[in-house]
Specification:
about 110 residues, alpha+beta, three-stranded antiparallel sheet, about 15% strand, elongated, binds L-tyrosinamide
Amino acid sequence: MVLEPLMMSDNPDEDDKTSVLVQTRPKTKRPPLYKVLLLNDDYTPMEFVVHVLERFFGMNHAQAFEIMLTVHKKGVAVVGVFSHEIAETKVGQVMDFARRHQHPLQCTMERED
Ligand code: TYC
């Protein structure tokens, strides 16, 4: 009977084909953030938009009025940045509130890069 020699290298990692990835940096990846956007339209009253910004985005009257005017003039503005879950909740609250008052106000969310 001939016995094949069992070869083993000095480096134990070369013997089995499974390998372990060495973690170089500690993984501290933060979850993505989402911008909540308010869109302009021709019908929603300005006071209603100001109220929405005060009620759902915690703005004071002056801040809310300023952001409302930005949307009115530019067509869109970021009204807040949140986690995915909070952003979805805000969008839902605004869309629901606008629909209940029969205003065409649109609110969307967009992932931050
Ligand atoms: N453009 C609307 C008006 O003139 C006001 C408005 C502002 C509507 C912001 C929507 O997101 C909006 N009545």
